[in-house]
Amino acid sequence: MEIWINPACSKCRSAISLLDAEGADYTVRRYLEDVPSEDEIRAVLDRLGLEPWDITRTQEAEAKELGLKEWARDADARQRWIAALAGHPRLIQRPIITADDGTALVARSEEAVRDALAHSKS
User: Fold this and answer.
1) Which of 28, 37, 75, 76 is most enclosed, with most CB atoms within 10 A?
2) Which keywords does the record carry (predicted)?
3) pLDDT tens digits, one per residue of 95-120
4) Domain CATH for 5
């Protein structure tokens, strides 16, 4: 299992604490430093079953500068959104956990982290 985190994020720290308390085997990816490529973002979106605008932090200053709220949210605009996330990783919602069974989820609650744990048990 891998977890994409921003160490300054309280929800990320809470998720890590819960994973540690449960003795989970996981890898941390500090995605602001180890920025995911467009292909990696596409793969995570496929695993999440979401579109790029679903995992975009539209309240961030960078989102406002880019004018993301006005961008189309359709198949034709999908690549533009993915490029924005790769170019501005701060816009990626966090934490994202990729489970061992091929699923992924945005783990902003204890329940979501526990769900990821359930998907990573053999």
Assistant:
1) 28
2) Oxidoreductase
3) 999 998 999 999 999 999 999 999 88
4) 3.40.30.10
Say how far apart CA 7 and CA 101 lie, in whole Å. Answer: 25
Instruction: Give residue-wise pLDDT tens across range 55-87.
Output: 999 999 999 999 999 999 999 999 999 999 999
The active-site residue out of 3, 6, 9, 34 is 9
Is 102 within a domain? yes
Q: Which residues lie below 8 Å from residue 82, measured CB to CB, with a gap of 6+?
A: 38, 41, 42, 45, 52
Q: Is 12 a catalytic residue?
A: no
Structural domains in the chain (count): 1
**CA end-to-end distance (rounded Å), the chain:** 12
Query: Per residue in 75-111, is it b (16+ CB within 10 Å) or e — as a string?
Result: eeebeebbebbbebbebbbbbbbbbeeebbbbbbeee
